[in-house]
UniProtKB/TrEMBL annotation:
Keywords: Lyase, Mitochondrion, Pyridoxal phosphate, Transit peptide. The keyword DNA damage does not apply. It is an enzyme of class 4 (lyase). Belongs to the ACC deaminase/D-cysteine desulfhydrase family. This is D-cysteine desulfhydrase. GO terms for molecular function: D-cysteine desulfhydrase activity. The active site is at S100 (nucleophile).
């Protein structure tokens, strides 16, 4: 897949717009694995120096972007929130699992901008609210939906949005607002933080936007492309070096954004996405859907797309496959060990899988081989929900050698 625009023309067309994050900036650290199982964190790596005597990989610390919003959610919503503002959206309706990081992110970021969020969560209310579930409830309006109803997400979202709109309001879908706003219109004003006063005076009709589960729309790719453009600056990862870029995959949207950006910006980067929520066929379909939506919405042509079914992402099996959301024995201890040695918190459902893949790839790389880079997407608050569900795993964590 190659964009038939030059890379500068591509970035001008796609990235010249208003954003939610004031800057795409993020910290990049280096993780050195010395004598197993010892790990060392270097918070000020020098990117030009290739010391392959020791095995290491770089970590993009998107887990530090926002205290409550996952890094990958902040990226996915980076271009969406200005569109809401542009279209005078008053309410957002979206959905997710009980401990959805996506619904928490929508709730927090909408609340910061005076937009009301309606969050449909699958299943029953937990006895004790914690983690992302607690944040969704604090910042948004939560409704718990029976699993049978939730199974048909589109119908559920549509009927709930209609009920919020009532007789006078209107319901919008993402395709409506992307077509109503051109990139040139969006680039005329600076980054916005708060909605303008006229919209908060109560004299407007309600406009409800439906956002898909996990923000898996083509607009979510834009923030990820913006991140890649930032990382590929010469003083950071650069444009010349071959890189194996590792990420965990829930909906797979972040991985597709990384792959798309690498190809359209002409970077020698390969994306390795660890499959967590679906099989490879499901992820390949998602890749095709997002790219075809992206072409349509942003009026960009690609040549050579999906030649011989190769795609733009290497979808990788998880080391220990299981039903999505389940935790296996030893994983919580592995997260504890990483936290104690490096000060980095990974979680057993998402980021541990990507961490293990980065460890594996970087320990295999020859001296002249590609660099390995891990995108740490966050997931910190997810640990609270897991501790609530898997009390036996978390209860067994050792307190250290001197237990009283």
């Amino acid at each position: 897949i190659v964009s038939n625009l030059g890379s500068e023309e591509f970035t001008q067309k796609v990235l010249n717009r208003r954003w939610t994050l004031p800057s795409p900036e993020t910290k990049i650290h280096q993780l050195i694995h010395t004598q197993a199982p010892t790990l060392l964190l270097n918070t000020h790596p020098s990117f030009g120096v290739h010391d392959k005597q020791s095995k290491y990989f770089y970590i993009v610390r998107d887990d530090l972007l926002h205290p409550l919003v996952n890094g990958n959610k902040a990226r996915k919503l980076d271009a969406l929130l200005p569109l809401l503002h542009h279209s005078s959206v008053t309410d957002v309706v979206t959905c997710g699992g009980c401990q959805s990081a996506h619904t928490a992110a929508i709730a927090v970021l909408c609340a910061e901008r005076g937009i009301v969020s309606h969050l449909l969560l699958r299943g029953e209310q937990p006895e004790i609210l914690t983690g992302y579930n607690l944040m969704s409830t604090m910042y948004g309006n939560v409704t718990y939906v029976p699993r049978t109803v939730y199974a048909n997400r589109e119908e559920m979202l549509k009927s709930y949005a209609n009920s919020v709109a009532g007789n006078n309001g209107s319901v919008l879908w993402f395709s409506d607002i992307i077509q109503a706003s051109s990139a040139s219109e969006l680039s005329t004003s600076p980054n916005f933080m708060q909605m303008d006063v006229s919209r908060s005076e109560g004299n407007h009709l309600r406009k409800i936007l439906v956002v898909n589960e996990g923000a898996g729309d083509s607009v979510a790719l834009l923030g990820v492309i913006r991140l890649v453009q930032y990382l590929s600056q010469d003083h950071l990862l650069g444009k010349q070096r071959p890189i194996k870029f590792v990420v965990d995959a829930g909906t797979g949207t972040t991985a597709v954004g990384l792959g798309l950006a690498a190809h359209c910006l002409g970077l020698p980067w390969e994306v390795y996405a660890v499959m967590l929520a679906d099989k490879i066929d499901g992820y390949r379909k998602q890749e095709e859907r997002l790219i075809s939506e992206f072409k349509k919405h942003f009026n960009i042509e690609f040549i050579d797309f999906n030649r011989e079914g190769a795609g733009i992402v290497n979808w990788v099996e998880r080391g220990r496959p299981r039903k999505f959301g389940n935790v296996l024995e030893g994983e919580v201890e592995a997260c504890q060990q990483i936290a104690q040695q490096t000060g980095i918190l990974v979680d057993p459902v998402y980021t541990l899988a990507a961490w293990e893949t980065a460890m594996l790839l970087s320990s295999k790389e020859a001296e002249e081989g590609p660099e390995v880079v891990l995108l740490h997407t966050g997931g910190t608050l997810g640990m609270f929900g897991l501790a609530q569900r898997y009390t036996n795993y978390f209860g067994m964590l050792k307190k250290g050698p001197d237990q009283f």
